[in-house]
Write a structure and sequence with these properties.
By secondary structure, the chain is an alpha/beta fold. It is built from 23 helices and 9 strands. The two termini are about 60 Å apart.
């Protein structure tokens, strides 16, 4: 079967129709199968099908001339009959490299780049501002500055979104660029398979000829000497040709378990980390998602999610999707006062609050916000700032630690159980009603928690 270098769905349809065309050539035109294999299938390749013109590339002028003399009429007629439309053949002779450069637009190898991830829908904030700006710069001037660009950070913080955004921008602005996106694990597998199947040259041709190479989760090549060596060679080849390289990882370059030669290459360009988003960025992400959905979520619920889910963007979106699904299932719009909201998000909230948040940490955070001492916080003074600080502190202890009310009472010493219950109740009510001052202090404390190591 003729193998097409796919340019569009029309080209794919033409390729898929080849068995029918082949049968017609044999049954109606009397062409023997050995002749078809020798003079059509082996030396010819479908390049494109556009405006009813089928372009076919031949290995040499000799094959092209022979086909033109003995097969052109029958081939053109058979394809026209199968496709039920009059087609014209365009016969060319060029190298594979020439085809890729001249006849294809945006050859995206292993086309798993999600076109929905762009710079326009990436939510910027203090946690990702530098990585975002560097990515935009690289996409506008690939290979000319900041090469390589290295983006690192934890799971679900937006690294892959930025890689996709770069690819989509380059695809739009540089239509003849050969773009390759691959994650570290797939790079390892491709290299191993090329060695096993003795087609190392195909592997090299694929990666060495890229105009833009984006490799995600580079940490997966660690501990694999052969793969690291091949990636080192790939990197050097592309860098010398001034082709853009973008790398993403879950940790900074110098913390990767890779050889020094690779690490030195990674740090010679520009590297930026992405951290967990602050409250404002998380809330903006939720609002952006809300724009696309017909089903709407109450603003108090969005605030609840943004406040309680702080680890990464994926968990934030997971929480959002859970709420949307529950509302569709129950035909009921949830609010922050609904116990059902707490139930459906309990697992995510517990996971996000499992950091090193303990009695001492919360004590220090509250004292820092209210600018009071630990002694003043624990005193029996009825001055307004001290009383308010105690209410907040007790509420945070009940929310972010595993301490029971009895244990909180015991730890505070000078407060009885009824006062502990009252503090929890009064702050909970303020949270539900959206009290601005309460929201302000809780956002402050929450943003401190995000940066706990």
């Amino acid at each position: 079967m003729l193998k097409a270098v796919e340019n569009s769905i029309n080209t794919k349809v033409v390729e898929e129709k080849w068995p029918e065309v082949k049968n017609l050539l044999m049954s109606e035109w009397g062409i023997l199968e050995p002749g078809i294999k020798a003079f059509i299938e082996r030396p010819a390749k479908i390049v494109s099908f556009k405006d009813n013109v089928l372009t076919i590339n031949f290995k040499s002028n000799e094959y092209k001339d022979f086909f033109e003399k003995d097969y052109l009429v029958s081939f053109e007629a058979s394809y026209s009959e199968v496709l039920q439309t009059k087609i014209t053949l365009n016969l060319v002779v060029s190298s594979e490299k020439d085809i890729l450069i001249n006849d294809l637009e945006n050859e995206v190898i292993d086309n798993n780049i999600n076109s929905e991830y762009t710079f326009e829908n990436f939510i910027k904030g203090p946690s990702n501002a530098h990585a975002y700006a560097a990515s935009v710069c690289v996409s506008e001037n690939p290979g000319k500055e900041y090469n390589p660009l290295f983006i690192y950070g934890g799971t679900g913080l937006g690294k892959t979104h930025l890689l996709y955004a770069i690819a989509n921008k380059v695809k739009k602005d540089f239509p003849k660029y050969k773009i390759i996106y691959v994650d570290g694990n797939d790079f390892v597998n491709e290299y191993v398979n090329s060695m096993r199947n003795h087609n190392e040259e195909d592997f090299k041709n694929k990666f060495y000829n890229a105009d833009l190479l984006l490799i995600d989760d580079i940490q997966y090549i660690a501990g694999k000497p052969g793969t690291m060596e091949e990636f080192f060679n790939t990197f050097n080849m592309l860098y010398k040709k001034k082709k853009q390289i973008v790398i993403a990882s879950d940790m900074p370059p110098k913390e990767l378990d890779l050889n020094e030669r690779l690490i030195s290459r990674f740090v010679q360009g520009l590297s930026y980390g992405i951290e967990s988003p602050n409250y404002e960025t998380r809330y903006a992400i939720l609002l952006k998602k809300q724009e696309k959905d017909f089903e709407k979520i109450d603003s108090s619920v969005l605030e609840f999610i943004a406040f309680n889910i702080s680890n990464n963007v994926r968990e934030l979106e997971n929480a959002y999707n859970k709420v949307i699904f529950t509302q569709k299932l129950t035909h009921k719009k949830l609010t922050s006062e609904d116990e059902e909201l707490q139930d459906i998000l309990r697992d995510l909230c517990l996971e996000n609050n499992s950091k090193k948040i303990d009695f001492n940490y919360l004590c220090a955070a509250v004292c820092q916000y209210y600018k009071i001492s630990k002694e003043e916080l624990f005193s029996k003074s009825k001055k307004a700032p001290f009383v308010e600080a105690r209410h907040i502190f007790i509420y945070l202890l009940s929310t972010y630690t595993q301490l029971s009310q009895s244990e909180i009472t015991k730890k505070l010493g000078s407060f009885d159980h009824s006062k502990i219950s009252y503090s929890i109740k009064i702050v909970s009510e303020r949270v539900k009603t959206g009290d601005e001052e309460t929201k302000k202090v809780l956002k402050y404390i929450n943003n401190l928690m995000v940066n706990i190591e």
